[in-house]
């Protein structure tokens, strides 16, 4: 007899954390799970269990944890309560289910999912031993992905060291070149979001970049497009290729990318045009380098934000054209190597995602 699918709410307890993001402590003893990909730390814990953590807003992601921790108020804690559900299997199911959750998410600039999106999810439930076998195979796939990511991080360390060597330590404001406030040599602006309920504002030909799309160094495509009417109805504007994009709030705050196409953005993104004073690659790398210090300057309550004023007051060394050109040439060579790693990771991720879905579907059809 075939094994069918079961509503996740019948097999697991789903709840949210209670804290805001400001509750974290850099040297805390326990993990503090927010909607960001990497957990923070905290001095106290409210939960102790084996579970899966699902980001409730922003760029959705899932994490597995077994032990003590605390959680942000928009992070869902999914804890198996049935002995018929393996937690590692649950993790891989929810990881593959992210595609569906993103479709179900609602809201404007920062989209979010509701409790029912998780409790009503239909999970294939093969026998426990089969769940563990599937989970073990998918764990190996994740391990391979992590190895490739670590190699990519070594490349990142290399360009950062080269940048500091050539242009000085940005954290100590030490540089052989003059320091300028970014707002003195570049213009900054943010975009906008047309009203979602007006269908005529979306589905046109104007690419519209959201902050969650700044994970790649170069933005060359977008998930959504605006019509001319939609563009005119909001504060969104057309930006030219080469503009540097910086996410100002949400789970991706601090993410940096370079616009590779003519496009518009939402209001969660600051567009920086250095008017030929700074090469886009040089500027983007500098912003990536100072991201931790920049995020520390955010203002606000439960969801602190970067502002245009904070960004315009960034101090940045301004080398001559030849110095920037030499660094950019080095960086492009590095990018070729990084592309190889990224291509490998993308291929493995696609294969793994396809296999994940296939394995989970097979699990629900066992005889």
Protein architecture, described:
With 367 residues, the chain is an alpha+beta fold. The protein contains 9 helices and 18 strands. Helix 3 packs antiparallel against helix 9. The C terminus is likely disordered.
Give a short overview.
With 367 residues, the chain is of the alpha+beta class. It is built from nine helices and 18 strands.
Q: What order do the SSEs take from the amino end to the carboxyl end, as H and E?
A: EEEEEEEHHEHEHEEEEHEEEEHHHEH
Uncertain regions spanning at least 5 consecutive residues:
362-367
Q: pLDDT average, as an integer?
A: 87
Strands, total number: 18
Structural class: alpha+beta
- Overall geometric form: globular
Please give the domain count. Answer: 3
